[in-house]
């Protein structure tokens, strides 16, 4: 529990994503975002809204800690679709969080991995996304977010 307390506050976010999430050789594109995160349930829940002003969309993430399984479930919803994506689940170990789940992208089944790092006090958090088309045998790194806290 309390693993996402580091995210509470307002952040300027530098995004880099692949122009094709399923092609490891596609070009990287960089763009800004602003994230506002809050802590709930005494650290057992985290909520944030992120806006991508140059992309014209935004999204929400709800993170819930399952005390029995000692595991987090992360749920994403995009303003573009208004639907809740399937969750990724996992935990932090030594300041690094790894979360995985099943989803689809461009009509193809993908295994999704989110990785959080740089979460210790004084560090700059980083979120990374990976897709696998072969049930986790290989991964395509397709999105990175670097967070800088607003004063």
Describe the protein.
The protein has 151 residues and is mainly beta. The protein contains no helices and ten strands. It has strands spanning 9-18, 28-40, 45-52, 57-66, 71-78, 88-93, 96-105, 108-117, 126-132, 140-149. It has a ten-stranded antiparallel beta barrel. A hairpin with a 2-residue loop joins strand 7 (96-105) and strand 8. It starts with 8 loop residues before the first strand and ends with a strand.
What is the topology?
Elements: E1 9-18, E2 28-40, E3 45-52, E4 57-66, E5 71-78, E6 88-93, E7 96-105, E8 108-117, E9 126-132, E10 140-149
Antiparallel strand pairs: 1-2, 1-10, 2-3, 3-4, 4-5, 5-6, 6-7, 7-8, 8-9, 9-10
Q: Biggest sheet, in brief?
A: 10 strands, antiparallel, barrel
Low-confidence residue ranges: none
Number of strands: 10
Helix content: under 10%
Q: Average pLDDT, to the nearest integer? A: 96
Radius of gyration: 15 Å
Main sheet strand line-up: 1-2-3-4-5-6-7-8-9-10
Task: Output the keywords.
mainly beta; 151 residues; ten-stranded antiparallel beta barrel
């Amino acid at each position: 529990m309390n693993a996402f307390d580091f995210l509470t506050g307002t952040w300027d976010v530098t995004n880099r994503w692949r122009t094709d999430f399923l092609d490891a050789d596609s070009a990287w594109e960089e763009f800004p975002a602003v994230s506002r995160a809050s802590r709930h349930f005494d650290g057992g829940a985290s909520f944030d809204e992120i806006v991508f002003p140059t992309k014209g969309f935004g999204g929400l993430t709800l993170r819930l800690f399952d005390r029995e399984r000692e595991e987090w479930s992360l749920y994403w919803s995009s303003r573009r679709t208004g639907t809740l994506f399937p969750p990724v689940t996992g935990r932090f170990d030594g300041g690094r969080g790894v979360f995985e789940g099943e989803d689809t992208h461009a009509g193809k089944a993908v295994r999704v991995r989110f990785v959080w790092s740089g979460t210790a006090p004084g560090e700059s958090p980083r979120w990374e996304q990976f897709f696998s088309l072969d049930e986790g045998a290989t991964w395509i790194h397709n999105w990175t977010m670097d967070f800088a806290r607003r004063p």
